[in-house]
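Task: sequence design from structure.
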């Protein structure tokens, strides 16, 4: 029986922890012991841990509001994201690598699985086998010469300088230098879970993608019965967001779920005539009720919509969600708008057009079987297979 550490550093949504919890279940069924190192130690409920230890992951101070720095333009590449999260400061890199090294000394895992954890991967390199797991966006191929711009705009930060800063920190820790910044994500196995159409690195990826991680498993196919608009919004959308006004003005039958929504938000949405679900809605139930889906572009939700054959509108607010929105629009299976650019009246009018678009509905349904037939096993089983191979 091996001891596997599952770690999560970057990314602000619960999907990372949900994914690691699913991986842990597959590993336990094969007789392995698991521990977690999480950005948020409350991300997995205590009654679901099944005795696993949870350690607080070393967190970059750039994720802390009182230590964050003013933003210098929107990130255009993974290099920009890394720089904004601390890779432009050799002191932060050194401190986090030391912290991860001490944690690895305490936990003593036989293998590490990293979900969006570049500092963890760097600290674990040459110590134990590693697997980089996540979405296509969060598992950039380590073989790339540099991080490409994902928007067509010039990156904000000088990647060559970021590489120098990283190597300064590695040198002080007597760790091997890296020749290219994408090597930060180097691992024994790369296990990006996504659809190729959503992969911003498809041009450079050499290892096959595995099935996306889906909270509720493969959803059923959509039928003609659904008439609702289901909205899955993140918990950082404010009560005064113009999204809510746009939804209300559409006059469409809207059902909303916001994880952890406060009572004030629920009351405000109900006052606008919008139905609010306090608890997560099983995706199969969403499919049965819905004609159109709206979300912020979270990977699992977007993939589930594509698998179910439902049109979707993505109200994106960061680089990863923008990539998903562009991909869905490029496929002709939905629409997109930046969350901060929503204007209630035009948004409502466009929603009505999308809702009534029978050609769009037919395209989404026709595309679904092609997405569904690509994978022969869930991602957690593919990763568990890789663990068994690496541990021999």
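Answer:
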């Amino acid at each position: 029986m091996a001891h596997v550490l599952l770690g999560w550093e970057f990314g602000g949504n619960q999907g990372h922890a949900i994914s690691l919890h699913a991986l842990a279940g597959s590993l336990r069924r094969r007789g392995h012991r698991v521990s977690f190192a999480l950005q948020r130690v409350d991300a997995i409920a205590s009654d679901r841990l099944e005795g696993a230890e949870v350690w607080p992951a070393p967190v970059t101070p750039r994720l802390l509001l009182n230590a964050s720095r003013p933003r210098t333009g929107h990130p255009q590449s993974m290099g920009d994201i890394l720089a904004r999260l601390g890779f432009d400061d050799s002191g932060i890199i050194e401190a986090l690598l030391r912290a991860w090294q001490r944690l690895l000394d305490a936990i003593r895992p036989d293998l590490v699985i990293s979900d969006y954890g570049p500092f963890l991967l760097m600290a674990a390199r040459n110590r134990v086998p590693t697997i980089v797991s996540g979405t296509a966006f969060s598992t950039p191929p380590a073989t790339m010469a540099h991080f490409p711009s994902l928007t067509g705009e010039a990156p904000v930060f000088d990647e060559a300088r970021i590489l120098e800063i990283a190597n300064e920190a590695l040198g002080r820790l007597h760790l091997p230098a890296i020749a290219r910044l994408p090597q930060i994500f180097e691992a024994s196995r790369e296990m990006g879970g996504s659809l190729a159409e959503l992969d911003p690195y498809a041009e450079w990826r050499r290892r096959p993608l595995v099935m996306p991680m889906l909270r509720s498993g493969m959803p059923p196919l959509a039928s003609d019965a659904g008439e609702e608009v289901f909205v899955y919004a993140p918990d950082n959308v404010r009560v005064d967001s113009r999204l809510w006004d746009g939804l209300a003005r559409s006059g469409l039958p809207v059902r909303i779920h916001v994880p952890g929504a406060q009572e004030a938000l629920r009351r405000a949405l109900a006052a606008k005539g919008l139905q609010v679900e306090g608890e997560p809605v099983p995706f199969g139930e969403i499919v049965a009720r819905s004609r159109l889906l709206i979300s912020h572009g979270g990977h699992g939700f977007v993939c589930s919509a594509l698998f179910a054959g439902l049109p979707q509108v993505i109200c994106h607010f960061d680089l990863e969600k923008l990539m998903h929105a562009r991909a869905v629009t490029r496929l002709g299976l939905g629409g997109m708008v930046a969350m901060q650019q929503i204007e209630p009246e035009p948004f409502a009018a466009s929603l009505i057009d999308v809702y009534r678009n029978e050609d769009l509905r037919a395209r989404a349904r026709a595309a679904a079987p092609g997405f569904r037939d690509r994978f022969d096993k869930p991602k957690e089983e593919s990763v568990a297979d890789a663990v068994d191979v690496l541990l021999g």
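The mean pLDDT is 95.
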